[in-house]
Amino acid sequence: MGLKFRGGLIGPKNIGHDVTLEEKQNDTEGQPQGVLGTDNNKELDPTVQPAGATGSSTSSVEEKKDLQFGVQVAEATLQVWTREHLIAAYIMMWLINFVNAFASGVAGTLTTYAVSSYSSHSLVSTTSIISGLIPGLTKLAYAKYMDNFGRPQGLLLAVSFMTIGLVMFAGCNNVETYCAAAVFYYTGYSWLDFTITIFIADTSKLRNRAFSIAYISSPWLITTWVYGYACDSILDGMGWRWGYGILAIVVPVVCAPLGALFYWNQRKAIKAGLVHVKPHGRGVIQNIVFYGREFDIIGILLAAAGIGLFLLAFSLYSYQTEQWKAPLIICFFIFGGLLIICFVVWEKYFAPITFIPWYLIKNRTIFFTYSMMASIYTAWYVWDNYLYSFCIVVYNLSVPHATYMGNVYTMGSTFWAIIFGIFLRYNGRLKWPAVFFGVPITVLGVGLMIKFRQPDVNIGYVVMCLIFIAFGGGTLVICEQMTVMAVSKHKNIPAVLAMEGMVAAMGQSIGSTIAAAMWTSIFPKKLAEFLPADAQSSLSDIYGSIDVQSSYAVGTPTRTGIENAYGATQRLMLITATCMYATTWFSTFMWENINVKEINQFDGAVMW
């Protein structure tokens, strides 16, 4: 079956609207809108009615009375934001991202040691699969939650999930609980990041939006130099549990001022008479049914369970005595596949409200942006999942220095995103920088690591490759976010960004699945091949713990054998990842040629 694109393969079109880009350029974008736009035929909650406001303004409550409460109150709130409050909000968001960057860096580093403490080092990828899949699948539901209840309430929910996850991290006693904690933490983290991105989209002009996003991400330039030493101190002193416990206190405290500012302006808009909430009149059971339908809970559960079971089979098969023939793995494949089929049937024929906005994906640029994201995230997690372990074991780096290696990309891409954001402000082109710079330099970096990420090669060459990848990634990440926003009506921006997050999470999960499958099937065989005879009896312990791997003295036959096993395994993972970038390049080439300088936007509160 061929895929039909609205308007064919040329000529930019707006998602969900059969109008040209020229017509879109006169579309005002001053107000936030619903995830799936307005559906006047469905039940909305709570209903919002005008409070004496009349007129033909695009911000009129009368014209927007059918929108969900969260959408309309957010629109009204933007009318009362002052310049001072916007500046304060951007400063607070920067501080929140500073803490989140520090916390996620610490959490990600401690994951290796926490999982290894249960002798399950190879479950690092499994944890990544689960903690990446759930946040992505729930982001659209979270966007709908904000549409129904409001931005402050969404922020509160996101921070609550992060805090619960950190508390669970601190108190867990097995790898299963640790994985559950990772789901809570990274789900909240993803939602909070999404909330900030939507606020930036609401309050910045398109030509300045890339720089605004890069500015909010700039704390990584600082935290990269800090959290490595914090991890070292935590591991040598209080232990990883106390590290998580401290973060569980710091994160909500830092996020509270922004939540208060959101709530203050929301109440200000309501008190100003811009909106009036009418009670919906439903009981508890009716509310449960309503929101279950609104958020498509059945669809989310089917997708999460089906995809999760299917992908986890690739990660967990090596722990079974019969491996691929094990009943557990066979059941994972069968039931996972059946649930995925049920999800498709449910979404197609039975779901009253689908949680995936299928009609938006028909736009050519959106479709190929998502395919680009899927390929680049999949490739990334194939080669990156065990980079930290490689640095610790093969290069014998300390914890801080290993985190520096792991964050060469973060530093480089964040720095480059700022430069590229300024470039976009004055040049405006999105497609050709991605096609002729972003993808090629990324492929160059990953391809060169096939040769250089080996035990007998100087680490400086690996750093060089990571810098190449960082500059490519800094270009591509900005381009893909800006592209989907540039071709969208403003009311669809939350939907396309939430869908973008889901595709990225799927790419992460698939990439982690491939990495886990390759690692668990290849690394033990390479250990058996390279370990000396006197270490063969310890193969299982070596395979399962990074601490055991790094405990052997550098230069000993056992340590050399472990290093060679790492190099041989990761060479195959890098080759696999490099091949995936062909899809990335083709996808960017299929984008529409958009110039953000030519798109005039904004009639509302704007930072700059």
UniProtKB/TrEMBL annotation:
Coiled-coil intervals, chain numbering: none
UniProt-annotated stretches for the region Disordered: 22-61
GO molecular function: transmembrane transporter activity
Membrane topology field: Multi-pass membrane protein
Transmembrane spans: 87-110, 122-142, 154-171, 183-201, 213-230, 242-264, 297-320, 326-346, 366-383, 403-423, 435-453, 459-479
SUPFAM superfamilies: MFS general substrate transporter
Compartment(s) where it occurs, according to its Swiss-Prot or TrEMBL record: Membrane
Family to which this protein belongs: Belongs to the major facilitator superfamily.
Name assigned to this protein: Siderophore iron transporter mirB
